[in-house]
Specification:
The chain has 326 residues and is mostly helical. The protein has a domain at 34-141 and 166-253. It has helices spanning 6-30, 34-57, 65-81, 87-109, 114-134, 170-193, 196-206, 208-213, 218-244, 254-267, 274-288, 296-310; strands spanning 144-145, 153-155, 158-161, 246-247. Helix 3 packs antiparallel against helix 4. It starts with 5 loop residues before the first helix and ends in a 16-residue tail after the last helix. Mean pLDDT is 88; it is low at 320-326.
């Protein structure tokens, strides 16, 4: 059972208040409705980054999360457009399909050394992109467009989720949906890290040979964690497709997979909420550096190198006290 201090509970309460009350009030007062889309994107990128962080937690470098986000986006779009499924049912289905693909990929390669796994994941996004271009069900380069907005959900006649198509402000609806999904994702991630499985993962991260000598099934745990990681990528990509109401082979590229990894480094690999902070800072930081013109990429690279060099455990290592994981 997890024990939370009063300070942690207050922090979580303030965070939830800021997301669900503070941000909408500020946006309403300023009239910057475009920020809803920006913050929704940050929330969904943070979900995918959480999966990459989880593979780091077992000592593996995952540079292929964009592939599973693209898989999730296509699976959800196909189920909604061509099979008539509700988006809310297609969402977990997309995550599960991405997890299944991860298991099929992980069975042979997760028995290899970490460097080989990283090299193989590096090409996964491009492989999925080429597959989407070739398959008839994905419509090739045309992609899948005109994806309908999520429909409402009722239980015993009681509306649980409103019909997005009937709403005047779908940006707010997607913002709340993405934030709830992000909170559930990180709550599940925190619970996993503090479970028996999480403790086994930590032992693997420290010394796989020693963990194996005491009976830990290394290969099995690697595959389970990789599947969970890909599930997060799949649901994040599915939500992106619903917001954009379209998905194309270029919706997620290799650069996105690299950014998912950088989000973890920037926020802090030793903290569960590290990817969330890293995503927020990297997303807005890149836009702020846009004013530097041709020097944008140079300054961006220098800052990232400096953070990795002087803050190897990310920006959250600046905080006082112990990390979020126990």
């Amino acid at each position: 059972m997890l024990n939370f201090s009063a300070k942690q509970l207050v922090g979580v309460g303030l965070f939830l208040f800021a997301i669900f009350v503070g941000v909408p009030l500020i946006i309403s007062a300023t009239g910057r409705w475009d920020f809803y889309f920006t913050l929704t994107s940050v929330a969904l990128l943070a979900i995918a980054s959480a999966g990459v962080w989880l593979t780091f937690y077992i000592g593996r470098i995952n540079i292929g999360q964009g592939a599973f986000a693209l898989i999730g986006a296509y699976v959800s779009a196909i189920l909604v457009v061509k099979a008539g499924w509700s988006f809310w049912i297609s969402l977990p289905a997309a995550g599960l399909f991405a997890a299944l693909v991860a298991i099929l990929i992980g069975l042979p390669i997760l028995r290899l050394r970490g460097v080989y796994f990283a090299m193989i994941t590096l090409v996964l996004t491009q492989v999925v992109t080429l597959t989407a271009l070739a398959l008839p069900i994905t419509n090739g380069a045309k992609g899948i467009s005109s994806i309908p907005l999520p429909s409402g959900v009722s239980l015993f006649g009681i509306p649980l989720i409103p019909d997005f198509a009937a709403m005047e402000n779908t940006k707010l609806a997607f913002y709340y949906s993405a934030c709830i999904l992000m909170i559930v994702t990180y709550a599940a991630l925190y619970r996993l890290v503090n479970s028996r499985l999480g403790h086994l993962c930590r032992s693997m991260q420290q010394n796989e040979e020693l963990a194996s000598s005491i009976g830990v099934n290394i290969a099995y745990i690697r595959i389970v964690i990789f599947a969970i990681s890909s599930f997060f990528g799949g649901i994040g990509g599915a939500m992106f497709g619903s917001i954009a109401q379209s998905v194309y082979p270029s919706s997620f590229q290799v650069a996105d997979s690299i950014n998912f990894m950088l989000n973890c480094f920037l926020g802090g690999l030793g903290y569960v909420v590290g990817p969330m902070l890293g995503t927020l800072i990297l997303y807005f930081g890149w836009d702020l550096l846009f004013e530097l013109g041709e020097y944008q990429l140079l300054v961006y690279s220098i800052i990232l190198i400096a953070v990795i060099r002087f803050l190897p455990n990310g920006l959250l290592s600046l905080r006082l006290g112990k990390g979020d994981q126990k």
